[in-house]
Each structure stands twice: as C-alpha cells, then as structure tokens.
Write a structure and sequence with these properties.
Helix content: 25-40%
Order of helices and strands: EHEHEHHEEHEEHHEH
Low-confidence stretches: none
Number of helices: 8
Radius of gyration: 19 Å
CATH architecture: 2-Layer Sandwich
Number of strands: 8
Largest sheet: 8 strands, antiparallel, barrel
Strand order of the largest sheet: 1-3-2-8-5-7-6-4
Length: 292
C-alpha cells in the first residue's frame, strides 16, 4: 500500500524533524475509571487520587535505577469518542479495543535494551502491581523513538497527548504521520513530539503511540481543532484515505492534591465544544457555496 495524500495543501508540509532519541520507553496505560456520559471530559473521582499518589511514589523509586532516565505519571482529562468517527475504526470495531486509558505512566530508559532490563526489577513489579490492583484493563508497550519534532517537557504541567494509532499498513502510517504533525505545527503551534513504536518482537495493540505537549488549556485546544475546517478535509480525510485510525487521549501530569473538576467547569467546556462545532458547520457550508 502506498501513501496517498488527499486535498494537498502547501500550507501543511511535512513536519520539521530532528534525529530520533536513542532512549528506550515503557508505556503503561490503564483503564481505571474512564469517562462516562456524552462529554469527553474525565472527571476526577476521589478514589483515584490515592492511586495516583501511590503511582507517583513508585515511579520516583523506579527513577532511582541506573537504567531509568526519567518517569512521568499522567491522568486523563479528556477521552474523545473517536471510535464513533471514521470508517476504518468502525470497520475494525470487532478487532480493535478502543483506547480508554485514563491513567498512564511513561518510563524513559537509557536505551531500548535497558527498557527490557528494567522489567526485571522489583521496583517495576511494584508499579505494575499497583496499577493491576485498580484497573479494568492495562496495556504495556516497550518502545523506541521512531520520529521526533522535539522532546516533551515533563518538568511542568501542561496539556499532554498520547495518540494511539492503528493502521492497515504500519509503514504508510509512519509516513503519513509527518504530514499530520505538519498540520499540528502550523495550526496549533506544536514544537515537540516523540513518536513511539514497539520494539521488534514486542506485541502491542498499536502500531505507534504519539506523545506531545501544549501550553494551553483543554477548551482552547479542542477549539483549535474543531473550529478548523482543515482538520476534517486534511487530517481526518488523509487518515481515512490511508486506512489509519487514531485514538487520542489528553492528559495532565498526575497530582493527587489537585482538586476535582467542578460542574461549572464541565458546563463551560460543553459551551466551548458547542461553539466550535457550530463554527465548523458554518465554515463547511461557506466552503460548499464558494465551490459552486
């Protein structure tokens, strides 16, 4: 299968990439108490705070190992209902488990080989055990960095992305990613991203997991996407044309002391989403009229 770019636009060239990192990665993702209801927002439940505190403590212990460079624990703030959209995900609904991971841990090691060794340590077993005691389902990926725009800063909070990709052809998906990332560079100011792919011989439900960060809040980020017509005719259209499915989840750094989402905040987000969708519909109609 060859890459096919539909609706090409010189405004969206391939992403500006630097050399991939030589690090290894262990990505642990768990369904603990994912969202429910019509909104994509994941409301913090009080019982999750205790788990997050435990994970942060265990991750810091793991970080003391010589093979481990750094660790980060994340809690989801939004899980969009992406399996409902896109023919490729709908067609494969029976074979693809939707990504609904409201807790994630990323462990960066000195090398891919070091990631394998880390799994043999008691500190790693303790971390996995804490997740397994609370989750409904957990997925572990041992990975390397295939492509990189820039390193993701975990030293301060922000809006973090883990985007879980599935595809009919992994090579095509990796090539398409350059163009999708180019759109995000232009339209959202993205200046960092690491694309993780499973280590050879390691099983994973995903052909790649993209990780990135923005210095914006959730409502603004969603508005930046949904209010732009190019997100549909370029980003979504090219994923469909190349038989690629993406299941993005937005996170923040885990902080057990953080207060829960208030209902007023959820209502504000609902208003923002409604406005973005309305604007998108208006732009679509204007484009159709101008094309007549």
């Amino acid at each position: 299968m060859d890459l096919k770019i539909v609706n090409p636009d010189p405004k969206y060239p391939r992403a500006s990439l630097i050399e991939p990192s030589t690090s290894g990665y262990i990505h642990l993702a768990a369904e603990v108490s994912p969202r429910s209801g019509p909104l994509p927002v994941v409301a913090r439940r009080s019982e999750k705070a205790e788990l997050l505190g435990r994970l942060v403590e265990l991750a810091s212990r793991l970080e003391r190992l010589d093979a481990v460079e750094r660790t980060a624990v994340f809690e989801a703030v939004a899980i969009p209902p992406t399996p409902r959209f896109g023919s490729y995900l709908r067609e494969r609904a029976g074979s693809i488990r939707p990504a609904r991971f409201d807790v994630a841990v990323l462990v960066e090691t000195g090398s891919p080989e070091a990631a394998l060794r880390v799994q043999e340590n008691s500190e790693y077993f303790d971390l996995v055990g804490a997740l397994e005691a609370e989750d409904r389902y957990m997925h572990v990926t041992l990975a390397r960095n295939a492509k990189r725009i820039g390193d993701v800063d975990h030293t301060r909070d922000g809006l973090f992305l883990f985007n879980y990709f599935v595809a009919e052809d992994a090579d095509v998906m990796l090539e398409l990613w350059d163009y999708l990332a180019g759109w995000y560079e232009e339209e959202t100011g993205l200046d960092n991203s690491v694309l993780l792919v499973p280590l050879e011989g390691q099983e994973s439900n995903y052909v790649a997991i993209n990780h990135a960060r923005w210095d914006v809040g959730l409502p603004r980020f969603l508005f930046m996407q949904l209010s732009k017509q190019s997100f549909r005719y370029y980003v979504l259209a090219n994923m469909e044309a190349n038989r690629v499915g993406a299941m993005p989840i937005l996170y923040r750094l885990a902080d057990p002391r953080r207060r829960e989402y208030r209902p007023t905040n959820l209502r504000k987000l609902a208003v923002v989403l409604a406005a973005a969708l309305a604007l998108s519909l208006v732009l679509r109609r204007l484009r159709k009229r101008s094309g007549r």
